[in-house]
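Batch job 17 of 40 flagged for manual review because the log was empty.
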Amino acid sequence: DAADATAAARECALVDFAGQMEYLVTHQLLLASMHTLCLVIQPLGSFAQPSSRHHGSWRYWLSFLRALGERRTASVILAASQLDRVETELAVAEAAAAAEFDALKEAAGGGLGAEALRLDYRSAAIDATLREVRRRLGEAAEAVSSDWWVPASYERLADVVRALRARKERERSLPIVTREELRSAVELDGHASLCRLCTDPLLMQRAIDYLEAVGDAMSDRRLDVLLLDPVGWFAAFLAHFVRDDGNPCADVVRGVVALPDVVAALQHGYSAPEAQLTEVMSLVCSLELCVELSRLEKDAAGCGRFLFPCLLPLVSAPELACHWPAAEATATPTAALVMRGHRFRARDRFLPPGVFPMLVARLARLPAGSVSATRLWRDAAVVRFRAASALLRVDLAAATLDIVVAAPNDASHFVGAAKGQASAVRWLAHLVRQMLARGYPSITFDEAWLCPTPSCHGVPYGGGDGDEGAPVAGAAADRGFGAYCGTEFPLEPTAAKPGHACEHEGCWNFLGTGHRLEPLQLRAAAAGAEAPAVCASCGQQPYFPLRAGGGFGWAAKEDAELLRGGMSVAQPRVGIECKVGELHEDGGRDRKQGN
């Protein structure tokens, strides 16, 4: 504030983050820092209008930021805007905004200030609004940086990086710098305060952490380079694929962008676009924002074509019915469809929109033949393991991520190296659990098994004509095909294996190999715990093991024992009519085995 000669000067870069869902995937890369100040703005009139698309913006963004990790106290400011455009009574809108603020303040346990910031843009009030904004931002900056101690060398390094970025902009070169290039720029600067940075890797890393905190660079464990001006670069890059201003965007066909179209859209910003943009796409793929089709489908025909999961369409029931369950699972009207499902639910009822696009990008690590771009959507994916077909589906509103595997028989659930170790649903649940634990450690997920009765998943029992391209007939339209309507059977909390990295131990490539699966146990088996024993939708007692008795996958252990003795018995409908039991991963023949 110029009127206060004693106030410390604060340089603040204001960034307007786009609200489109497609941009939220990159927002999580940029807003996770503990040193960012976030001003969350919601139009005043929307608080009393549940039908407004802005209704609940405060609550949504607070949940979004909380899901990204720990934040500094007072780093978030809530503001109400458009005071002059309230369609309802002003007093009603003001009361609704105040009630929302009080509820969020109580839930947050402090840190949001005494009241929300009012952004009045009318000519008579704009000066007062600007002064109040500066005051609140200054208070937030002081609160966030109260225990900072920034060496002069860090500030000097930031100047070097900004000069490096300016030079790259003039040369129209890529906004990336290797650590060696950064070290050379530091040595060329020659300032005495920077000498130790070149010889002490720990000090250099701390300096890079500072560059990330102030937004001058971004480093990531998946990258071997630093990205300069990450906020501006991501905004400029994605703006060519996500447009709502009437201008044409790059040619995107079902989430897929061809490299020539990327070059045509971005060539004005680079001196050698063909070579440079190939490197850009490699960087974006490393951040798991997109994946090259040749890597996803293990087919050289996909070279130079990139799938952006955030640009895929949402799945519809007719589309899903064309691909799941697989034709092998519904080949004849009398087929006994064996289904097993696993659900992850965010305990705080909020799931960041970047979770599923990240998972879709990681599906490229699965074995050849498992994934096809035609079976991918923004909120669902179908992967194949021979006769078994797995549906992965996210519901952001319910904060759930489901894995449902369907197969014509129990043996088909055990594929590849996982035979005798874990079924496909257990293996995929392990991969997802590890991904969530490493990517979103601040979110607690509850896990549950889903009823194995096909009708609870909106799938008619049996049926189908064996044609993969034809929708499954029957109850699909009435029940919502692929939408689960049964009971959740909660599991005992299972922590991800500490220090375990699926990428390093081969879990994506070799089914069930390279790790010991986490033991899963129904909560009903624990002393004093209460859990449902009957599915409220189908009225059946679910039976989850696929290897009952001697590994034959019958619905009852008694039937499996009869078969082992050479007796012929009629197999009951798989997945029902048996008790819920305690499940162990590595029990003996006479113990009920988990999926």
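Reviewer: the log was empty due to a logging misconfiguration, but the result itself is present. DSSP finds 19 helices and 15 strands in the chain. Unflagging and moving on to job 18.
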